[in-house]
Amino acid sequence: MSHHQVGTDDAVEFIQSATLQNAPSAVKGQVRIRVLDTFAAMIAGYRQDGIDIIRDYAIDRFGGEKKAVATLLNGNGVRVHAEGATLANATAANALDIDDGHREVKGHPAAVVVPAALATAELVDATVDEFLDAVYVGYEIGVRAGLAIHETDDVYTGTGSWGALGAAAAGARLRQFSQEQTAHALGIAEYHAPRTPIMRGVERPGMTKDGIGWGAYVGTVSATLAEAGFTGSGTVFDEENVTATVSLGDRFHVTEGYLKPYPCCRWAQPGVAAVLSMSESIDPKNIQAIHVHTFETATHLHTRAPDSPEEAQYSYPFPVAAALVRGQFTQAEHAPDALADPEILALSEVVEVHTDEALDDRFPSECLARVELKTRDDTYVSDVTRSPGARMQPLSDDTRYEKARRLVSPTLSESAIEKTERCLGSEEPVRELVALWQT
C-alpha cells in the first residue's frame, strides 16, 4: 500500500485487527448498549410518518428473492438486498432523533454504522461477535473521520458526510477485505458521501435530516465497489496535520457518546430535562413566559408551530412546551394531535431561547441549559442542566431498558429487549439476533 499515506494506513490496520476481546471491558459494554439502543430506535422509526416512503423504495428497488439477504428491522421480517436494508434501516434509526450521539463530532455514529454492519453481517452470515467487532471499528473510524473532515473543511456537516466511512469500515471488516480493498472502500465512501449541510436542515427541517440513511448506503455500496476493483483517492486521514488516527486503540470514542431520552435534537434536550424537573409544582396554564439560556447553536432551533415530526424534533420551543403540558416528550408528541394541541402551541409562543456566553463556551463538549419560568405570581429558575444520557450523567440500566421497551412497543413484545441482551453476549449467528426482532 505504498501509494497510501500513513493516516489511511493506520485506519486500515485498526479496521483489520481491532477486536472487542482485546479492548477494555467498558468498550464492549458500550458497543452492546449502542446496538440495542439503535435497534429500538429503528423499529420505532418505522412507525414514524414518512418512513414508509423509504421502506417502500427499498422493497421496490432492492427486493426480489435472488439477493434478498438482509432484513428490514420493522418487525415483519421483509428481506431485501443488503444495500437497500442499510438505506432503510439507517433512515429509520434516525427518524425519531432518539438515537445515540457524540458531542465532539456533533452527530450520530451508531445510526449510520449499526444498520450497515447488520446488513453486511447478514450478507456474509457473520456471528454476533463478528458483527459487534464491525460496529466497534466502524464507530471509531466514523467519529474520527467526522473530526478530521470538520477540521480540514472548517464546515459543520451532518452525520452522513463522515458516517459513510464508518459504514464502509464495518463492511470491509465483515467482508475480510485486503489492506488495499479496505483503503479503497474508505476512499470511495468519503468521496461519494452526501454533503449534508446540517444547519440548513436545522432551520428548514425535512426528512433529509443528517443524511444518515444515504451515508450508510454510500458506505455499504463503497465496500461492494472496492471488492469489485473500483478505486478511491485516499482519505481525509492523509491530509496534512490531521492526527485523528493516532489515538486508535488508545482512545475509545464509543465510550464518550451519549444516549438520548427524548426524541428531539440533542441541543434542546437539556431544556426539556430542566422543565420536566420543575413541572410537577407548576400549572402550565399559569406560565406567562419561558426563557431558556443555552449555547448559541441551539438558538437556531426556532420553530414554534411544527407541521411535521421533523419540525418538532428540530425545535426548542415545541418540545419544552409539550413537556410542560403533557409531562413528557415522547414519540406520542410527534403525532398530529400533539402538533395541533392548542395548549402546547400557545405555550410554545412564549418560549424564548437566549445565548448564554458561559454555557456557549462549554459547547460542544457539554450541552447545557438553564430555564426561567415566569408565572403570574412567581419566577422559577432551574439549575444549569445537562440532559440525562450524557457521558457525565449516563442513563441507568433501568432507564435504558425502559426507553427500549417503550420504543419497541407495540411492534414487538417487550421481552425482545431482554432476549437481545442475552444474544449480544453470545456467539450465535447474527441471523438469530435478527430473528428476535420479528413478529
Mean pLDDT: 95
**Major beta-sheet overview:** 5 strands, mixed
Output the radius of gyration. 21 Å
Q: Based on Cα principal axes, name the global outline.
A: globular
Poorly predicted ranges: none
Please work out how many helical segments DSSP would assign.
19
Helix content: 40-55%
> Which structural category do the helix and sheet elements fall into?
alpha+beta
List the quaternary state of the chains.
Answer: single chain
SSE arrangement, N to C: HHHEEHHHHHHHHEHHHHEHEEEHHH
The counted number of beta strands is: 7
Q: Hey, roughly how much beta strand do the residues contain?
A: 5-15%
Question: How far do the termini sit from each other?
Answer: 47 Å
